[in-house]
Amino acid sequence: MADVEGNVVLVTDATRGIGLAVAKELAGAGAIVLLNDPEPEEQAERALAEVRKLQPEARLVRGDVADPADIDRMFAEIRTNYGGLDGLVSNAGITADGYAVTMGEAKWRRVLDTNLTGAFLCCRAAARLMAGQRAGAIVVVSSTSATNSLPGRANYAASEAGLLAVVRVLAKELGGYGVRVNAVLPGLVETTMTDTAPDDRLADHLRQVPLARSGRPAEVASVVRFLLSERTASYVTGTSVVVDGGLTC
């Protein structure tokens, strides 16, 4: 297999930020990218048009990863249309910040349902396809919040730390089937999440980054491509690659 050329890869939350950068990186390398997102039709179509400039066979797979029925339908479509799946990039994630002592159960569950349960269900569905093929790669996009948590983010930190545990377990369970499972942990990256963060919080955060800048989505995307590729990462599984400018060093 030459890098990811010709591979069918599903990317969740793929119409903006890191997800869109990953979709474009993979499409530019010749992968057939399936862009998943529940966002409004106009935004999704714009993202698809960008990716199709790089790989005309890219397509949208609509669905909400917080909805198990949507996940079942998405993967059934993939099986029907492509017969299998070579790669999954589980990237969907949300935040709903609030101090733990005042955080309601609904806010806790909303983040865990998307970030952790949704990711697990997507990984499970992908694993079922890949195990039958005895080949495939899964990359879960977590966050440095998994190990370097901030006040007001108990729900987010718990979901991201949980993803790392899921990755380690899946790597052990699926290795015998030729399926690799890894995680990427971005630090402060220029996305819509950082766009809405208070300026003083961002400035304080950047002071802790040795490279003295925020990351770019494309810098995360290149690491995801590395982990998906059998050419570059065929003996890499069960690990986490930190992409944070040195924040957690």
From TrEMBL:
Keywords: Oxidoreductase. SMART domains: PKS_KR. Pfam families: adh_short_C2. Residues 7-220 form the Ketoreductase domain. PANTHER family: 3-OXOACYL-(ACYL-CARRIER-PROTEIN) REDUCTASE (PTHR42879), 3-OXOACYL-[ACYL-CARRIER-PROTEIN] REDUCTASE FABG (PTHR42879:SF2). Belongs to the short-chain dehydrogenases/reductases (SDR) family. The keyword Zinc does not apply. The keyword Transport does not apply. NCBIfam families: PRK12826.1-2 (NF009466). It comes from the Bacteria. GO terms for molecular function: oxidoreductase activity. This is Beta-ketoacyl-ACP reductase.
